[in-house]
Design goal:
The protein is an alpha/beta fold. It is built from 15 helices and 11 strands. The N and C termini lie far apart (64 Å).
Length: 461
């Protein structure tokens, strides 16, 4: 049987991609005008192209321009290599194109999502009846956490808005927390002033004593402490806030506890790393991104909430063109900010099914071990380490002016054999940030990174 040319071109591209990416540089220098011109020259939209040729041209552009985040020596932000089964699942979902607003339209897809979410909620220590849904990413999941906090702590808010709140709301988070919270405070109508960033301690974690003082000050000033966002794996340094202490404080003060575990949530799959997340099961809501440490393509955020009534109050709507369900959370459109959406969770379920939860524990622990090996090599080479975390995020410092760090990062990126980024922690500590993001990364790749950092350091002296 003759093979479809488009599918043949796609199979050829995907089957050779990992090897081609690994053999090339992690990044090349690009100028916006040059890339824009090349894209325009590649696709003359006045003239049709055979689909397989259009695909090949798009693949050449993607290969030639951009940071290759699936490269085993990409040590940048939380963008992983992706497992082939998850890529195949995404293609399958695109072909079937199930509509996940209503259960009756896509029962298999929705139940596959719920199977994955239930397994991961259990790993977090959340109750079996936890409400959970897939999101576009951590920012949307964090938004849902704030909306559910408002729905739970001020039930009239869902109808009357911020006018129904008992006072100016306050959201607490560490100064190292993700800045999606700034956008969320704006989008919810609370305003940036509602977000109070609490100073981090010497470990770069949220300081419970400073949090308690902030809550007391706000109550005395007539403000309304609403919630605290603890982070399990900060973006800058991979630090885990003291979740048990924060959970106890939240319970005493009547605060909604949301844990942003977009990155660090995967530690829950490892018996060895899980104790670092002690207390996460006490959260009212949790964010976790499968597209970070679980190696599936963007986007695959997840939101978990133990208060099903708050979820229904925040997102439930009724209209004649959607089915009326006995369970207010039966249909995904009634349990998240999204309405129409793709079946995000199928790729997550298949990734979990391929290895099993014990297999994922091994993957997570192996990457953590590589992080420890990188720390040891840098420490032995005279680098300082600015962060303490069991997660594979390493923030390396050098004595002298901050320009040295910028020069090291720039030189490593310019050479293209590895990729790291620059980070400023607590507003004062400038560091080279390296994160193990790929399940394909080996000890040899870590050795190349150290070699490149040492070469760049000598050049910056």
């Amino acid at each position: 049987m003759e093979r479809d040319p488009l599918l043949a071109a796609l199979v050829e591209e995907l089957s050779t991609l990992p090897a081609r990416i690994a053999a090339g540089p992690v990044a090349r220098a690009d100028e916006p005008a040059d890339v824009r011109a090349e894209v325009a020259g590649t696709f003359d939209l006045e003239r049709p192209l055979p689909a397989e040729e259009a695909l090949r041209r798009a693949a050449r552009l993607l290969a030639g321009h951009g940071v290759q985040v699936t490269h085993p020596r990409y040590f940048g932000l939380y963008n992983p290599s992706v497992r082939e089964v998850a890529v195949a699942a995404d293609a399958l979902v695109a072909a079937y194109n199930p509509q996940l607003a209503a259960w009756t339209h896509a029962p298999a897809a929705i139940e596959m999502e719920r199977r994955a979410l239930a397994a991961l909620a259990g790993a977090l220590g959340l109750p079996p009846d936890t409400a959970a849904t897939f999101t576009t990413g951590g920012a949307e999941a964090n938004l849902q956490g704030v909306l559910c906090a408002l729905a739970a702590r001020a039930p009239a808010w869902a109808r009357a808005g911020v006018a129904a709140l008992p006072g100016p709301a306050v959201l607490y988070a560490s100064e190292e927390a993700h800045h999606s919270l700034v956008k969320i405070a704006r989008a919810c109508g609370l305003g940036e002033d509602a977000l109070r960033l609490v100073a981090a301690d010497a470990r770069l974690a949220l300081d419970p004593a400073a949090l308690a003082r902030a809550v007391a000050e706000d109550r005395a000033a007539g403000r309304w402490p609403l919630m605290v966002v603890a982070t399990a794996g900060t973006t800058g340094a991979g630090v885990i806030d003291p979740l048990e202490e924060i959970a106890a404080l939240a319970a005493r003060e009547g605060l909604w506890l949301h844990v942003d575990a977009a990155y660090g949530g995967a530690a829950a799959l490892s018996p060895r790393l899980r104790p670092a997340l002690a207390g996460i099961g006490r959260a009212d809501s949790v964010t976790w991104d499968a597209h970070k440490w679980l190696s599936v393509p963007l986007g695959a955020g997840m939101f978990f909430c133990r208060d099903r009534a708050a979820v229904a109050r925040a997102f439930g709507v009724a209209t004649s063109y959607m089915p009326a369900a006995g369970d207010p959370l039966q249909d995904p459109f009634s349990s998240s900010v999204q309405w129409s959406r793709r079946a995000t969770g199928v790729k997550v379920l298949l990734a979990l099914a391929e290895l099993g939860l014990p297999g994922w524990a091994s993957v997570v622990e192996r990457m953590a071990d590589l992080g420890e090996a990188l720390r040891a090599r840098l420490r032995a080479g005279g680098w300082g380490l600015a962060n303490v975390t069991p997660l594979p995020v390493i923030c390396a410092t050098l004595p002298g002016p901050p320009e040295r760090i910028r020069a090291v990062v720039g030189e490593v990126q310019r050479r293209g054999r590895a990729w790291v980024s620059e980070v400023v922690l607590a507003g004062r500590i400038r560091a080279v940030r390296a994160c193990i993001t790929s399940f394909r990364t080996t000890a040899d790749d870590v050795a190349v990174l150290v070699e490149e950092m040492e070469r760049a350091r000598r050049g910056a002296e």
